[in-house]
Amino acid sequence: MPEFLTELLNNHAWLMVAIKVLGVFAVVMPMVAYSVVAERRISAFIQDRVGPSRVGVPWTKIRLLGVGQPLADGLESFLKEDFTPGHVKRVFYWMAPAVSMIPSFVVFAVIPFGSMLGMQKMVIADLNVGILFTFGIVSLGVYGVVLAGYASNSKYPFLGGIRSSAQMISYEIAMGMAVVPVFMLAADPTWREGLTVEWKEYLDGTGLLNLSSVVAYQSDSLFSWLVFKQPIAFFIFLIAIFAETNRLPFDLPESETELVAGYNTEYSSMRFALFFMGEYAAMIAGSALMVVLFCGGWTLPIEGFNTPAQSLGMGVLHILVFIGKIAVFLGLMIWVRWMLPRFRYDQLMNIGWKRFLPVSLANIILTAIVLWAIA
Amino acid sequence: MESILFNIFAVLAVLSALLVVVNPLSRNPVTSAMFLVTTMISISGLFVLLNAYFLAAVQILVYAGAVMVLFLFVIMLLDIQETARRKLRIVSLVMGFVAVGALFGVYKSSVEATYEKAVHETQALGQAAEEAEEDSEVVVGSTQALGQGLFSHEGGFILPFEIVSILLLVAMIGAILLSKKELR
Fold it and tell me: Of A78, A106, A283, B68, which residue has the fewest beta carbons closer than 10 angstroms?
C-alpha cells in the first residue's frame, strides 16, 4: 500500500470503519437482490413452473437464468407512481418503510463476517455485548411493521400491525432464552487457555459475550459446533428467526389470503420495495446470526480454515465461507416457505408461550446441571 | 468528542421526553409513544458514554424493544383516539411546577454534596483501578464485573437483587390474578 494511504488510515480510525460499512453494504445489497431471485426461481421449481428467466443482458439474446431480474424490478419500483392514499397518517406512513429497513442492516455491525484482512479484524464494531446489541436492534425491527399498520389507517393493515407486535414480542423471549445455554458454554473463561497463539492474539481484549469469542469456541472440530452441542437451542432459535422475519409458516402480519397484504397493503412503488428489501435483509441478518452462534461462523473444521487468517487470500476465503454458510440458511428459509402452510394465530401463540418458552427454560437448567456435573 | 455526543444525547432525551407530554403539534397517543422510544434510545446512548455497554444494550432491548411495543399494542388494540386539549388549571400548573422544582432542588443539593467527595474518590479509584487492572483481567464496567457485583455474597448485592425479583414476581402474579374474570 502507498505510504500516504497507510498514514491516512492510521491517523483516522473512522476511515477504516467507514470503508468496512461500505464494504458490508456493497455485499449485503446484492445478496438481498439475488435472494429475491432465488426465492422466485426455487418457488417456481417447487411448483413446477419456470419462474423469472427472461431478463438478461439488454439488446442481446443472453438470458443468464434471469440474473437481470433485480435490476428490472428495481427500475420498475422507481418508475412506478408513488401514491399516498388520502386517509393515511402521513408522517408515520412515510417513516415506516425506513424504520422497518434500518434495523435489519444495523445488525450486521456486530457480526464477525471474516477473520482478518491485512491488519483489520473483519467486524465493524467488536462489541463485548455483541449478542445483547443484536437482540436490542432486532427487537426494534417491529416498529416498522406496527407503524405501517397504524399509519395506513385502514382495517387490514391495522390487523397486520397488531398481530406483528404480539408475535415479535412472544418470539423474542423464546429467542433470548434459547441463546442463554450457548453462552453458558461459550462464556466459560477456562476454554480460552487451550487456544493457539493466533487465536489468543485475535481475541486479545475481547469479553466473553463477544461474538468472535463464540466463533473461536466452535473452531476446534465439526462437533464443537454449537448446533451439535445445543440442538434444542438451535431448533428454537431457528424457528424464532422465522417468526421474527415474518416468514412463512409465521407470516401472520402479511397473510395475503386473509389480510390482502397485511401491513403493506396501502404501500406502492419504492416504499413497498423498501419493506420487501427489509424483509430479505432481516433474513440474511438472521442467517448470519445462526451461522455465528451455532455453525462455527467463518471457520471450517479443516486445517487453515480454523485459525485467523495470516494472509490476504485466506482472509478472503474466510469471508466466502461465511457467505456460503449464510446462503445455505437462506436456501432453507426459502424452501420451508414453499413447503409448509401458515399456522393459525392461536397456534402461533401457543407454540411461542406454551412450548418454546418452557422448553428453552428447561434447556437452560439442563445445561446448568450437565456443566455442574462435569465440573 | 465525548462531550459533543453527551450534549446531543442529553438534549435529545430531554426534548423528546418533553414532546411525550406537551407536544404542540399532535395529541396523538402513538406520537407520544414514539417520542418515548427516542427518549429511551438517547438514554441508552448516555449509558454508552458512561462505558456501561451492558446497561445500554438492555435499555434498548427491554424498554425500547419490549415495553414500548406493548404500549403501542395496547394503544392500538384499545383504539385510543386523540384526546381533546384540556384547559390548563392554574392551581395544577402551579402545583406541578412546585413539585418539579422541589425535586430538582433535592437532586441539585445531593449532586453538589456528593460531587466533592466523588472527585476525590475517583482519583483514588483511578489509581486503584490501574493497580487492579494489572492484577486481574476484569474490566471496570464490563458485563462480567456487573454480574460479579450483583451476584457475589461478599460485598455484592445478591440479597437486594433477590428481594427485587421476588417483588416483581409478586406484582406479576397479582396482575394475572386481577385480570382473571372469576376468582376461584
Answer: A78
